[in-house]
Design a protein that fits this description.
Blueprint lengths: L2 H6 L3 H24 L16 H19 L9 H14 L4 E2 H8 L3 H13 L3 E2 L13 E4 L1 H11 L3
Antiparallel strand pairs: 1-3, 2-3
Length: 160
């Protein structure tokens, strides 16, 4: 059992004392090294792991850049369903609503293409949105990921 795992079982007071002890030992080690004439530099912590929202934003930015570079060949790279899920995930993380109309404009999707994808994603229970009286999706209603949709996106971007 490692010290970190054992530390999780300690009462809060003991954890704080342990952290103070580790910090004091590090100061003593650095002081002793300096007294011997050694150059003491802090150990770099390494890069910070990006959040899931940052990963999704990066994926969307890469996809928009690719689309811009493709020009008239942009339709060769189309994945509207994935773009919709990523966009709704970022909106979820930023706690902001996104309507079908805004989504279509943001992703440059034709209304018919957007409607087909939204209908499919709703039927697959990956997103939810309100339907109007005729049983069709209302483009002015906010869209949201379902729990299944959120799980899918997190599973897909977790290794990105």
């Amino acid at each position: 059992m490692t010290a970190d795992i054992r530390l999780l079982r300690w009462p809060e007071r003991d954890r704080e004392e342990y952290e103070r002890l580790v910090s004091a030992l590090e100061r003593v080690r650095a002081s002793a090294a300096r007294s011997r004439g050694e150059i003491v530099a802090p150990v770099p912590a390494g890069p910070e792991e990006p959040s899931d929202a940052d990963r999704a934003r990066t994926l969307l930015a890469q996809r928009r850049q690719r689309d811009a570079m493709a020009g008239s060949l942009v339709e060769l790279f189309g994945e509207p369903g994935w773009d919709i899920l990523l966009t709704l995930f970022v909106a979820y993380e930023e706690a902001r609503p996104v309507t079908g109309e805004a989504l279509g404009a943001l992703l440059s999707l034709r209304p018919a293409v957007l409607a087909r994808w939204l209908d499919l994603l709703v039927r697959r229970t990956l997103i939810r949105c309100a339907a109007n009286g005729a049983g069709t999706l209302d483009p002015s209603t906010p869209l949201a990921l379902t729990d299944d949709g959120l799980t899918l996106v997190l599973r897909c971007i977790g290794g990105a």
